[in-house]
Amino acid sequence: MPVLAAEGGDARNLARLAARLARANAAVEVLVDGAERYLALRDRGPPASGIDAKTVGAKTFDANSFAAMPEEIRLRLLLRAIDRFGHEGPAELGKVEALLSALDQAVAENTGGRRPSSKSRPRSRLAPRLKQTLAGALVSLADGRIRIAPAPPRRRRPD
After folding, report:
1. What residues does each domain of the chain span?
2. Whole-angstrom Cα distance, residue 115 to residue 52?
3. Residue 85 has pLDDT above 80, yes or no
């Protein structure tokens, strides 16, 4: 604390910094709410695979629209969906960051390495480009769509 105080990090300045961070966090959460609504509105048409995500208990959205958003927005959207559909408690932020990085890489590979736009099409529509579980949620990328759903129960090991 004395070193922080010498640099101007006394209790009053730290409290002011905390208030500023809380204000910025609230603003980002409003943007995440808007991004979630935007992705949902883009999906109002017929689903790409013919499966209605609402009826199967999953969240799906266009990978290119998702990838075009700022990293912090994408991170929070992914965290929300994992926490909503996962069944093993809240996801750890560091693990969600690692998953987002893998998802970004898979989307980039699907679009030929260029930053996807909302109009670009994925190269291959055959197999999932990514399939990982985190906190009881299954996150996959296939057919240009990201899908977050409850993960299947883990297999029990024979005793």
Report:
1. 2-150
2. 28
3. yes
